[in-house]
């Protein structure tokens, strides 16, 4: 029986070879596709556009800034300067009372009796017996002891008003107070640079203790005493 096809024209003989070539071709296409790279277009700019024309003159605006002052630092504790009483001293001339041959003898009707009024006021420098500050009863120089105790009392009770410190108020307050006939503290007068400092000076003097009253001719009288209190910021 003769075959229907020519053996030389049989395509199945080379099918495996064609398969290998096709497979290589596909692999090559896949490799090229995976390794394919693209790049962005490069644009060239003319840097001449960035050059500034020197003929053009521009004036920059001027701004004025307000300087804010920093807050004031806290005020440190202050020192108090105590000034002793510097009122002028008025000398009292005491004439002798001893009788001599030239002494005129007066009749009883000619004797003038001087009564010391109840509201008599004597200043510190002319009082015969000064008021006695508590603690000075046994001291010989009661005036000096009185001044020392006054300074100690002011230093102990001194408080600089905080508001006066913030306002920068300082200066000397001249004060004058009355020691009544019973030894209590009476009217207090003050004069200073600010009412806050005056109020503090009055507060200090109002805390003075009761004293032994001063005497004039053996009778208790009112005695006025002056002392300045200085408020000084450091």
UniProtKB/TrEMBL annotation:
Keywords: Cell inner membrane, Cell membrane, Membrane, Protein transport, Transmembrane, Transmembrane helix, Transport. PROSITE patterns: TONB_CTD (PS52015). InterPro entries: TonB-dependent_transducer (IPR051045), TonB/TolA_C (IPR006260), TonB_C (IPR037682). Pfam families: TonB_C. GO terms for molecular function: energy transducer activity. It is found in: Cell inner membrane. GO terms for cellular component: plasma membrane protein complex. The chain crosses the membrane at residues 16-34. It is a single-pass membrane protein. Residues 145-234 form the TonB C-terminal domain. GO terms for biological process: protein transport; transmembrane transport. NCBIfam families: tonB_Cterm. PANTHER family: PROTEIN TONB, PROTEIN TONB-RELATED. Belongs to the TonB family. This is Outer membrane transport energization protein TonB. It comes from Maribacter orientalis.
